[in-house]
Amino acid sequence: MKLLKRLTLCLLTTVSFSACSNVEKEQEGIKVIDYRNPKKVCFGRIELTVPKETEVEYSNFNYNGSNIEVDESVKTYEAYQKLINDKIEYLKHEPHETEGVLLKQEMPGPVNQLNRSVSHIIVFRDGLYVTSAYEVYGYLYLGPKRLVVLKSGASNDLLNEAIEDMKQTLRSIKIKSAKGEDQAGLCWKDFFIVDDMSKNIPFGGGYLHFKFPSYPQVRADVVYRVTYDSDLHLIEMMKKNQKELPAIAKALMSIENLREHKKIINGLGGEEVLNHMSRRGYFERGYEVGEWQYLGTLDNHNDPYIQFSFDSADMVRPDDPLNSTISQKEALRLNDFILNSIRITPNNEKEK
């Protein structure tokens, strides 16, 4: 059933199908979400406004060839030092077929605080028989539960370049300012990556996942990354995928197209598709599923791809009902509240 739901999202919806649904029905006990005192969420070079209660989940982030994550188990500088030393000692004693041991080299990184090194780089082979590539790991300790770990790699002939890239990325990461940033760069969790856009640095980006305690099973997601050759305009992609939709999906599901248009949000010209879906022959609430996409510019990594997705009945188990817990009116209100807030952060607008 999960597959069915996702496949039907890709259906071209130029034709609306009749549906026996009660779109304003909602789960008993639901209270309207509080939109007062919303909070801003900064992600990459964009920011969004969400209700204060919103639970925000961040993926790991990819930037300048490194996958970036945070090790929250490290709570002291001494624990950070022990982690680095243990990693080095382990690699010194693990065998390699031709080079003796896995460790290639290790060095203090370029960042120091309070007259002590808070960064380190370790280069190693990833296995006994690996000979064509190196792993390049960077570590940046910025306080309790704020050990930033960067994982990259390089072929033998590009190792020196990869180490220099790692040094540059380590220098660029700092704790995000509570007052906002006055220089260009990218937000991620509690961190800020200084990047003035002059080098057109590539990044794989990541995603945000929003959940709302007042509205069970309602979710929203944001994808932020460079633009790929394979990316298509949203409406074009829907048309392309229509041919691949199983006949059973068309037979079982009724789809009402609520929106399908070009939509400019704070200067970002994208496309939006929003559908209401329900099972044929059932008098039920159904649910809304929608998407807005800004395609960005290929090869201009400072103008990346942005995708906002909304689902008013996220199905976390195969036997979950295909009905939203909230009315269509409130689903569209929440969708539009977040979607219409997407914008380039002021510090990045100035640079552009």
Question: What do you see in this structure?
Answer:
With 352 residues, the chain is of the alpha+beta class. The chain has two domains: 2-61 and 203-351, 3-Layer(aba) Sandwich (Protein Transport Mog1p, Chain A); 65-174, no CATH class. Helix content is 20%, strand content 36%. It is built from seven helices and 23 strands. The protein has helices spanning 2-9, 77-93, 159-172, 234-242, 247-252, 328-339, 346-351, and strands at 39-43, 46-50, 55-58, 61-63, 66-71, 95-96, 100-101, 103-108, 112-113, 116-117, 119-124, 133-141, 147-155, 173-175, 185-188, 191-194, 206-211, 219-225, 253-265, 268-279, 287-294, 305-311, 343-344. It has a seven-stranded antiparallel beta sheet. A six-stranded antiparallel beta sheet has the order 4-5-13-12-11-8, with helices on both faces. Strands 1-2-23 form a three-stranded antiparallel beta sheet. A hairpin with a 2-residue loop joins strand 9 (112-113) and strand 10. The longest helix has 17 residues, at 77-93. The chain is elongated. Residues 1-21 form the signal peptide. Keywords: Signal. Pfam families: Tli4_C. Residues 183-347 form the Tle cognate immunity protein 4 C-terminal domain. This is Tle cognate immunity protein 4 C-terminal domain-containing protein.
